[in-house]
Amino acid sequence: RAKKSAPFGLCHISEDGMEELDRYLAIKLHLRQAVAKDELLLALQPQVNHSGETTSFEALVRWHSAELGVVSPADFISIAEESHVICDIGNWVIDETLNALKRFIARGLDLCVAINISAKQIVLPDFASSLIARINYYGIPSQMLILELTETALVVDIETVKNTMNELANYGFRFSIDDFGTGYSSLAYLKELPISELKIDKIFIDDIDNNSAKKGAPIVDAIIEMARALNVTSIAEGVETQEQVDYLTSKGCNRFQGYYFSKPQFVQHWHNSELG
Ligand code: C2E
Ligand code: MG
Ligand code: MG
Ligand code: MG
């Protein structure tokens, strides 16, 4: 395609660049109203143990925009994180998750849900107190929630995050380090924080293939070993094949999440059909 340059301030942006910019601005504009317009949906993806039993779910937000159609979290979460919008979304996810847990309890199901907490949200001074207030309002035990933080979230403001994590851990919440191995946290930090779980990023799980039985997948092995040394559980994300399950099982990985077991399922659908 012919490259046409468009003047934009002092720089020149290619046609592709303009399209990208338009998309960015459109997402940014419409995202501000997404919560108010009730355009978000919650999906849950099972996390299973060695026996293939579902022990918990990860809560994953979905956005069906009236103007833009379905927009992937990969495209809108980072834009939401540029402003307080991520906190509106985060609070919506917390409330929706607590609603789902309430219905689980009503049906006698003993299942936990892991939620993704943004760096922007964990550093808010009232994050711990407002989360505790929310679970008490819904009557949900703190033990039913797992809070997923990325390594980036840990290092933004280590002292604040450490205090918040300690307060919540004392209250019974568990913490999982998401996308582990892709960030910049130091092992010294990890040792100081109340962490229950390391979540091995999909990019490392992708390294496990038919050959791994012979060659191994060194980073996966190292993370599982590290979890054991730190006395925390290990969970693999993005598990898609039987080879991966077999390899991870042989290495002692505790739990699995991925399309091999189930794609994320819309909560509404779930409550109506499978739970009756
Ligand atoms: P994540 O927390 O690492 O979530 C795992 C992502 O991998 C999800 O993508 C999930 O649908 C996808 N996935 C799970 N199993 C497989 C698999 O077997 N194969 C493949 N190809 N993908 C798999 P999703 O839902 O698009 O979310 C992307 C990222 O957006 C998440 O990565 C998380 O960082 C962020 N995100 C999603 N929901 C929320 C939320 O409620 N709050 C915040 N702060 N971030 C969220
Ligand atoms: Mg996650
Ligand atoms: Mg992850
Ligand atoms: Mg990931």
TrEMBL record:
Residues 24-276 form the EAL domain. Putative oxygen sensor; modulates the activity of FixJ, a transcriptional activator of nitrogen fixation fixK gene. FixL probably acts as a kinase that phosphorylates FixJ. This is Sensor protein FixL. It comes from Alteromonas hispanica. The chain holds residues 575 to 850 of 850 of the full protein.
